[in-house]
Design goal:
The protein is α+β, with helices and mostly antiparallel strands. 27% of the residues lie in helices and 21% in strands. It has 4 helices and 5 strands, in the order H-E-E-H-E-H-E-E-H. Bound molecules: tetrahydrodeoxyuridine.
Length: 135
């Protein structure tokens, strides 16, 4: 357990407070640091047709792309789990599209935070590099 960057945590908690989660009652916030220092926020948004719901991480990633950014230098996710929240598999794959495997990923719960990265979260992943093999 370690201490995450205060600005990213603040941004993610702010987004978490705006989560639309009337079905799961499990609000999640995400914050992405861009290469230029800007922070992009995301929260989960659920739907009465449950399968259409989207996680905080993917909302943040897609908002970043819509804002013109396709490279994230640091990621933070916060949820109301006891220990560090675990991003779903779909979000791990989407974050890897835009985040170097060794870039810091902070997973925050009620009782502390874990610093990890996408190499650990998604080992042996299929990544954009696999589509353009050098040999
Ligand atoms: N959720 C996220 O937004 N991110 C995670 O890392 C885990 C799960 C959302 C999806 C759904 O709205 C709710 O949390 C319960 O699964």
């Amino acid at each position: 357990m370690t201490t995450p960057p205060a600005d990213l945590l603040r941004a993610a908690r702010e987004a978490q407070a705006r989560a639309y989660a009337p079905y799961s009652h499990f609000p999640v916030g995400a914050a992405l640091r861009l290469e230029d220092g800007h922070i992009i926020q995301g929260c989960n948004v659920e739907n009465a047709s449950y399968g259409l719901s989207i996680c905080a991480e993917r909302n943040a990633a897609f908002a970043a792309v819509a804002a013109g950014a396709t490279s994230f230098s640091e990621v933070l996710v916060v949820g109301e789990t006891a220990g560090p929240i675990a991003p779903c598999g779909a979000c791990r794959q989407v974050l890897l599209e835009f985040t170097e495997p060794d870039a810091p990923v902070w997973l925050v719960g009620r009782e502390g935070a874990l610093r990890t990265n996408l190499r650990e979260l998604l080992p042996n992943a299929f990544s954009p590099r696999d589509l353009t093999p050098e040999d």
